[in-house]
Amino acid sequence: MSTNSNNEQSGHNEGYNFAYLDEQTKRMIRRSLLKALSIPGYQVPFGSREMPLPYGWGTGGIQVTASVIGPKDRLKVIDQGADDTTNAVSIRRFFQMVADVATTEKVLEASIIQTRHRIPETPLNEGQIIVYQVPTPDPLSKIDPRESETRKMHAYAEYGVMQLTLYEDIARFGHIAKTYDYPVLVNGRHLMSPSPIPKFDNPKMQDNPAIQLYGAGREKRIYAIPPYTTVKSLDFDDHPFSMQSWSGCCSLCGSTTSYLDEVITDDSGGRIFVCSDTDYCNDRQAQLLCDEHSEVQT
Amino acid sequence: MSLRSSHQFSTSPTLKPGLADPIFDAQSVFRAALSANAYPGRRVSIDRALDAPQPLATSTAMLCLSLMDLETPVWLDRQTAAGDVPQWLRFHCGAPLVERAVGARFAIITDTGALPHLNEFYAGEIQYPDRSATLIVQVPSLTEGPTSVWTGPGIRDSASVRISGLPSWFWSDWDVNADHYPLGIDVFFTSGNALVGLPRTIKVEA
């Protein structure tokens, strides 16, 4: 129940503790985060709290961000690569309200990036923190829903069954059909779900200089990948891991190297492809305009 | 809420204060600990001030106040337990103090000469390796000891680290700790206002 009914539009809302969570909860999450970094890819159970938005909207990521963020931070929030979609806008507003924190859409200006289902195209730097929202933290839960069993598989690194499901894909379709939430082996030991990022983004997790934190609110799990850590996408010698590729380019910025979304433009099947990462695409468009401008002048 | 002194503690009329700003100091110290654990071997400074009880260094005391509470049993070595620290920890953190090292989630060591062997601390369970102990080992210097070479997650190639004051058997104990991965203890070395993280994933050549 809110005792402070006339919330200000901006500025730290005095009705809540800084960043919404109470200090005891933050300490518990912080201890979990430290242990998560010490055991890369291992899912640390934590006392996930009820948040003022439903499960599935990033409650895990929000709790991680709330425990990490401070007044000096600059936050970027993306949803499927975009800064301007519903989930990103509401989470960014949430932190503006409860933590009065500076925000940005630029990857390189952000100290913390909370993301749903993408890793930015722009490479991250040392000291940056990327927080992933995770719906299903355990990649083995689809194979065996009993945690009592999957926990043993993780304990003894019994991951043959995961390899088998990928092999079944090859037997049925001729290739590994999984295109997102593609399982990875972290630091050569723990099998980990990278959250539902496209497999296109999987190679970005390997040896990334930034700190990667994962929060699953409903499933009450936190895990992490430290910087400069090996993150290997599962595959077979004769069916090596491969990323999606597109024959065209982004219709707005012309990029041929970024992850593209298909957009239907009319009723007669017309369609274009555009970058899913809006910050990257906007930067490139601005750069193109600049280049054109200088060409006209010379 | 701050208590400069407290009359009901007859044994110690001068209970040292806790964090001046419990929310933002704790956040800042945690971020230092997060960086130290993510980038092992790097010396990370804490830019907050604290009047710490003897024999704790600022960084040791700051880590205690930021990470410990009623959920974390704490073990103190003899030198730490002798002074005002037990009362200070109970008052500010509400942390239960335990007699046996194996029962602790956190251990504070200020006298490295009397550091127990690492296998005396709890290394976690095979299904829950996150339940292991975290050692806070206060050393004379983080930069002037014998050189050791660290490799592992969080370190790009290798890091050369110079922790001083460690017993001669420490790094061979550490090899055993690393052999039991994913079980194992994690360490923060502290000195002055700085800390260095040593998670269990790190291999050390001393």
From TrEMBL, chain A:
Q: What is this protein called?
A: Alpha-D-ribose 1-methylphosphonate 5-phosphate C-P lyase
A GO molecular function held by the record: lyase activity
What is known about what this protein does?
Catalyzes the breakage of the C-P bond in alpha-D-ribose 1-methylphosphonate 5-phosphate (PRPn) forming alpha-D-ribose.
Keywords recorded for this protein, A-Z: 4Fe-4S, Iron, Iron-sulfur, Lyase, Metal-binding, S-adenosyl-L-methionine
Q: Name one Pfam family in it.
A: PhnJ
Q: What is its EC number?
A: 4.7.1.1
Q: Report which reactions are catalysed by this protein.
A: alpha-D-ribose 1-methylphosphonate 5-phosphate + AH2 + S-adenosyl-L-methionine = alpha-D-ribose 1,2-cyclic phosphate 5-phosphate + methane + 5'-deoxyadenosine + L-methionine + A + H(+)
**Organism in which the protein naturally occurs:** Bradyrhizobium iriomotense
Q: Name the enzyme's class.
A: lyase
Regarding protein family, the annotation reads: Belongs to the PhnJ family.
User: Upper lineage ranks?
Assistant: Bacteria, Pseudomonadati, Pseudomonadota, Alphaproteobacteria, Hyphomicrobiales
Automatic annotation (TrEMBL), chain B:
**Which protein are we looking at?**
Carbon-phosphorus lyase subunit PhnH
What Gene3D superfamilies would the database entry show? Bacterial phosphonate metabolism protein PhnH (3.40.50.11310)
Q: Name one GO molecular function term.
A: lyase activity
- Listed InterPro entries: PhnH-like_sp, Phosphonate_metab_PhnH
**Superkingdom of origin:** Bacteria
Tell me which UniProt keywords the record has, alphabetically: Lyase
A Pfam family for this UniProt protein? PhnH
Tell me what organism the protein belongs to.
Answer: Bradyrhizobium iriomotense
